[in-house]
Design brief:
With 422 residues, the protein is mainly α. It folds into three domains: 8-203, Hypothetical protein af1432, CATH 1.10.3210.10; 214-290 and 312-335, no CATH class; 337-415, no CATH class. 54% of the residues lie in helices and 2% in strands. The chain is built from 18 helices and two strands. The protein has helices at 8-11, 25-34, 37-41, 60-80, 93-102, 111-122, 130-141, 156-162, 186-192, 214-237, 243-251, 257-271, 275-287, 314-332, 335-359, 372-380, 384-397, 400-411; strands spanning 290-294, 308-312. A two-stranded antiparallel ribbon has the order 1-2.
């Protein structure tokens, strides 16, 4: 049955037209992401704990799969509520699944510490941002071929779905630390908006960054739901979140009766060894906290993706924010993870400097430390900014294991036998 929620405007593809087969446009989006090299790499990229450090904790891959399940379930739930949705007019679950699976593709090794370090290194050259890097992969680097095709030829709706932030790096009054697009991605933003000019008032503050399609809003909430709850589960299992530490943390917060109930539930579920069951049920509650509401804006007459917005239960938003703050304060600010961040920063800085000396500001004897195809890409750039972006792309594309092995080959005298070259 045809889904009237979407039109050819939504299914148009960026870069070139795709061959039509038995699948819908959004099923092709999803399938191409799943079979992409960049997607497989997520199995070895940090979510909270370094990949491989605790084998049964979440990586970027398992997190993305959980986000996709939550996003798809939100679509089913909204459809089950009826008006204004029905079987011939609904938010496409395949599209939302594709958006969710793609949302972390651009994140570098070592999690948020890696992202912060690359942003520090790229501050002079247009910045680094995980979401902007995801867009860069979808439109420029995935499935490249010798015929000149770049990117995975994504639909307009998929591109818009991963665009959590729409403001360009140089559109901020001061260089931003995060939440921006790369300046060359302005053409993608124009494509997403169908070449319509952005109203002037949307350029104020964070208004443009908050302007999201309904599929992007679903992905954003599914992401929040997944990591706000699952970071707590992994934190408890790893021994970072003990009752003593949580109580000590709570003593420094202005805990109200609602938050005290959440704390009591957490302690009880840990004592009864039902933590994962209880928090899985909370995910269900976060799914049913969703509603749809009509809205009006400069895109709402062109696509239903901007004619409707997601509305969340305030209680669910407060609960997610509560768990996120707990995880941040106790886990991410812990000495153990701060030590790992220090190490990650050192690795990235040293590799960057080695690349810079051998491929940008060449002096003395130059050695080929990068794969030959990456070296050719750097050499093909005519200016320093382009060369910096190529080095950044290579670093961001490495997994935790790949970057550590590369670092050890270059800097560890005890590492480097023929068996270590893979």
């Amino acid at each position: 049955m045809e889904n009237r929620f979407y039109t050819s405007f939504d299914t148009d593809t960026y870069g070139a037209q795709r061959k039509v087969d038995y699948r819908t446009a959004f099923q092709i989006d999803r399938d191409r992401i799943i079979h992409a090299h960049a997607f497989r790499k997520l199995q070895s990229k940090t979510q909270v704990f370094l990949s491989g450090e605790y084998d049964f904790y979440r990586t970027r891959l398992t997190h993305s799969m959980e986000v996709a399940q939550i996003g798809r379930s939100i679509c089913h739930y909204l459809l089950s509520r009826g008006d204004p949705l029905d079987d011939s007019f609904h938010i496409d679950g395949d599209l939302v699944e594709a958006v969710c699976l793609a949302h972390d593709l651009g994140h570098p090794p070592f999690g948020h510490s890696g992202e912060r370090t690359l942003q520090e290194l790229m501050g002079r050259w247009g910045g680094f941002e995980g979401n902007a890097q995801t867009l860069h992969l979808l439109t420029s680097t995935m499935f490249q071929n010798n015929a000149g095709t770049r990117g995975m030829l994504p639909t307009r709706a998929l591109l818009d779905g991963v665009l959590k932030y729409k403001k360009l790096f140089t559109e901020f009054a001061e260089p931003p630390r995060n939440h921006f697009l790369y300046d060359p991605q302005e053409c993608v933003r124009q494509y997403v908006f169908g070449e319509r000019p952005i109203p002037g008032e949307m350029n104020e503050g964070e208004v443009l960054n908050a302007f999201k399609s309904v599929e992007c809003q679903i992905m954003d909430w599914a992401d929040d739901a997944a990591y706000s709850l699952n970071d707590i589960v992994d934190g408890v299992r790893a021994g970072f979140l003990t009752q003593e530490r949580i109580e000590l943390w709570a003593a420094g917060q202005a805990i109200d009766s609602e938050q005290q109930d959440w704390l009591d539930q957490l302690f009880q579920s840990v004592r009864s060894d039902r933590l994962e069951i209880v928090f899985a049920q909370k995910i269900g509650g976060f799914i049913t906290a969703c509603r749809l509401r009509k809205r009006g804006n400069f895109m709402s007459d062109l696509t239903n993706r901007y004619r409707f917005e997601l509305v969340l239960s305030p209680r669910a938003e407060r609960e997610a924010a509560f768990y996120k703050k707990m995880a941040n304060d106790i886990i991410f600010e812990s000495p153990q993870l701060q030590q790992m961040e220090h190490k990650a920063r050192r690795v990235l800085l040293d590799l960057w400097q080695s690349c810079w000396r051998n491929y940008v500001e060449r002096s003395g004897r130059v050695i080929n430390i990068l794969p030959s195809n990456v070296g050719r890409l750097i050499d093909s750039e005519s200016d320093v900014k382009g060369k910096a972006r190529r080095i950044c792309d290579w670093l961001a594309g490495l997994t935790d294991g790949m970057i550590v092995r590369t670092y050890r080959r270059l800097f560890d005298p005890e590492f480097g036998s023929l068996r270590d070259l893979s």
